[in-house]
Specification:
Two copies of one chain form a homodimer. The first copy, chain A, contains five helices and three strands. Chain A is an alpha+beta fold and 115 residues long. In chain A, strands 1-3-2 form a three-stranded antiparallel β-sheet. Chain A is elongated. Chain A starts with 5 loop residues before the first helix and ends with a helix. Chains A and B meet through helix 1, helix 2 and helix 5 of A and helix 1, helix 2 and helix 5 of B. Chain A binds a DNA duplex (30 and 30 nucleotides) through helix 4.
Chain lengths: 115, 115
Amino acid sequence: MAKHDPDLSLLFHALSDPTRRLMLGRLARGPAPVTELAAPTGFKLPTVLRHLSVLEAAGLVTTQKDGRVRSCAFMPQALQPMHDWLEEQRAIWDARLDRLDDYVMTLMKEQTDGP
Amino acid sequence: MAKHDPDLSLLFHALSDPTRRLMLGRLARGPAPVTELAAPTGFKLPTVLRHLSVLEAAGLVTTQKDGRVRSCAFMPQALQPMHDWLEEQRAIWDARLDRLDDYVMTLMKEQTDGP
DNA sequence: AATAAACTTAGCCAAATGGCAAACTATGGG
DNA sequence: CCCATAGTTTGCCATTTGGCTAAGTTTATT
């Protein structure tokens, strides 16, 4: 478990904005140029471009320029660290439940055995 | 798919900070008072309390006061929306791969059939 | 050559975030 | 009653975020 985990922070931060999630949802259906990506957001291009750069910084999107249009694509593998983190938390939680289980067992045993 | 999704935004925002993830990691192992929660972060109490309130706002943590100590507890079900969102994205992505598959099939068929 | 299209850059602004110190409010123990 | 413990509240600060307009820049298209 890395103490400094810029990946996860960037990832969660990128996903914490509804506009960026909207853009990502569009890209999950296939690549798109910036203008098409901007349309459903209702925001101006500079704003959308900054959101895009946040998504790129998180590794969720790659872009490349073909002529005068920049094509953006979703990078699903960037979600892996988040998935891993989720699993990790679940593992800790499960372990805790197991310990609780053991504890309850102990209590029951004490009850039946009696002092 | 809700257009306004404050839940997800609050959730991702709460998780986007390493200090908050550290606190949450501690709580996944079991409830703890604020001071114990603060210790590993290296930050002062007011700072930790504000992080705590962000976690509470996201529903990830509940707290209650018993005497002069506030006990904090992890609420794992708060992670569900995030899990659901992940699955949703995966579904969209998978559907896209299927369509791509169909497309490739079509191309292959055209090749063999010839014009 | 001139115009339109598709970004891109620069700079401005208000609000939110993340840190702190200092002062205040319980509550539990001696 | 007194004092330490455990929070809590208040205000301060620098930085980041998320929006904009206005003014470039680079490719098509006509």
